[in-house]
Design a protein that fits this description.
The chain is of the alpha/beta class. The chain folds into three domains: 2-113, Helix Hairpins, CATH 1.10.287.70; 125-258, NAD(P)-binding Rossmann-like Domain (Rossmann fold, 3-Layer(aba) Sandwich), CATH 3.40.50; 286-362, 2-Layer Sandwich (Alpha-Beta Plaits), CATH 3.30.70. The chain has 13 helices and twelve strands. The protein has a six-stranded parallel β-sheet. The protein starts with a helix and ends with a helix.
Amino acid sequence: MYFLLMKRIRRLLRKYDWLTIIVVLLTLHCISAALLLIFDWETYAQDTIPKTLWKGTWWFFVTATTVGYGDVVPQSIVGQVIAVFDMIFGIGLMFTVIGAGTDKIIERRKKRLKGLKPVKYHDHIIILGGGAKKKLEIICREIRMDLGPEIDIVVCSDKYRENPLPDIIDFIYGKIDQDDTLKKANLDGAQKVVIYGITDEESILATMAVDDMNRELFISVYLRERNNIKHIDRINRTRQKHSEITGKQYPKITIVTRIYDLMLARELSNPEISDVLFRLLRTREGDAFYSVQAWPDLNVCIKVPEIRKLLRATEAHALLLGVKRYETSEIIVNPDENVYICPKDQLFVIAKQKPQPDWESIL
């Protein structure tokens, strides 16, 4: 009967988790306390009822956990008989509780490592795919260098059987273009999404899935072949049409493609240019490329020379390289001195760190 009861309790623990632990312990404690107060009042009686109840509670947990200080001992035979039952069932229950609790912790950790447990983050970064482990580690490091060390990163992939970088990311196992995978990663609560599929087809399908579930997300997608850019452009045109219909501003999906073939040709007449470019792309090696939005809340346009001075005077000591027009998406590299920078234009700079100018106080 004893082992049958313990088995039943374990089954309840698996089904109802910690609620069962609390109910069973409190029930056993209440029954024991009531019987001991009836048959062994002299041992537990104190000045007040609360003190009496606390003394009985203290004795119960000291006994059930096998600590046994011996400061409170039932004196009557009936009280000692009740204590024997408390020892048998209380100790068995306590070990059952500890074992079940440990099993739960291990089970949850295994689920998390295998990517089966949904995340509950908000304003986090989701990486769909990520490629080889070393490449994934570099991407995560660069994201944290740019956005801060505290940013939460969730990687979704079906190429890993368990979390490839358990110390620095959370992991969701599944195909990156499936709704179930995106829901487990809490796509609706995410800040930005990086899409790095094994193939361009996988990346395009994942982009379509993300866009369908949350069109307001900023998405950066990597494509290996430039002739596949047209598929992402089609999604961007759809976003633009939805913007015109709803009046909402949906961010444009940015596309990153291979630049190795271009660099190979440029290197012939411009030696070492590739080394400089890749150094500027890595934030851990000092000055790097950054982009900054120009004063979104101020209705004023300012000439390039003045902006250069303002950026140079910031703590980041930024150097202006180019600008992308907010209204037309036109990109101007090395803008002329007569060019005006207007609200919400995107400024591209080289700086010691990501510039965070307080435009209102500067202007």
